[in-house]
Design brief:
Belongs to the bacterial sugar transferase family. By secondary structure, the protein is of the alpha/beta class. The chain folds into three domains: 110 residues, no CATH class; 112 residues, Vaccinia Virus protein VP39 (Rossmann fold); 192 residues, no CATH class. The chain is built from 14 helices and ten strands.
Amino acid sequence: MSIINGIGFLYLLPKQNLLIFSLYISIGWILLSVYSKFYEVYRYTRPVNILSLILRQLILFCLFVFAFSGLYHELNIYPRPIVKYTLLCFFIIGILKFTVYYLLQKYRVSFGGNYRSTVIFGYNKKTLALENFFNKNPEYGYLHKRTFNFRKKADSLTECFDYILKEGIDEIYCSISELTNAQIADIVDFSDNNLKILKFIPDSKEIYSKKLRYEYYDYIPILTLRNIPLEDSVNMIIKRTFDILFSSIVIVFILSWLTPIIAILIKLESRGPVFFKQSRNGFNYKEFDCYKFRSMTPNKGANLHQATRGDQRVTKVGKFIRKTSIDELPQFFNVLFGDMSVVGPRPHMVSHTNMYAKKIDKFMVRHFVKPGITGLAQVSGFRGEVETDKDIIGRVKYDIFYIENWSLLLDIKIITQTFVNAIKGEEKAY
């Protein structure tokens, strides 16, 4: 963005027309980048594919600048300067893109950083080829630990799982032809429940009717079972930008004047701090301090026991702010600091997370993204106290759907529904 704007200002346009040109090409660049997948460069992406992305973006951007010159023909921007401008931009961008790409590779080889440890399930020509790729190409950043043979050796899945947990393996690669359907199901469950990336080396067997992502490591085809939109760099930037803007607006225009009022009401009714801090599990299972307005009298069980219907610990002020969800507003500071998102799976107390991780299948999948102040499960009737296993199972189901189908429009829809529910009041808001 800096390159295309800077060179445009210095070379293409007179100074008085900078603002409109900057807005036009900046918005255009973002739209073209999303369409052409210009930033989808991974550790296993080949240089020829990067060059292809650059050339595709070059052609599209050149046409876009031509469209600008036609729209604002009074600026007298001629074709030859446009071509020179785009070529110069992409010459610099190409150099920077390949520099970062090769510096990362050099960093992995020389310093052993930015690595992902891997294991392979199955022993055949395809898995040997993948193992060979990992071992002979350290610049891609894969540290292969072990290939499990389910034919000659008596490698059981339990032993494999123990090894993965002991060695801190990041990614599991499976040959479908070497595994039974029951084994595949066990591996999928293990990966979900322990936050491991699972990928498949495909063959003629059917896996599941999911949105599979097809990728190439050199010339070896790889399938990713769960496609998470928020792993895409563009989507991450969009969501983080939205979080920062939205949380800043709430903090400046609502919390700035509401906090003193709530603080006075809380202090008048009971002794204790205005804010309540609680450890919860967030992205990648990391613990963070989650902030709320204190709605209960200070008690030792606050970090262990969830609020129930008619809970005697809840104060009169606390009952009101819990009913209207005002008690959750300080979490916008968590969003601004990067621990949470405005929308995402609701974080649980550490003690509850540990319990549900062992008890509820795929509960850990929720930690593939940042937790949220509100979420799809909350606006779908699974808010508040977990009274039965059905409640937490339903919550996990909606959270996984959100993770696999994220979009900015879905976030806006959830925020709108949350606001409507807060005004109407909810049955389980106690």
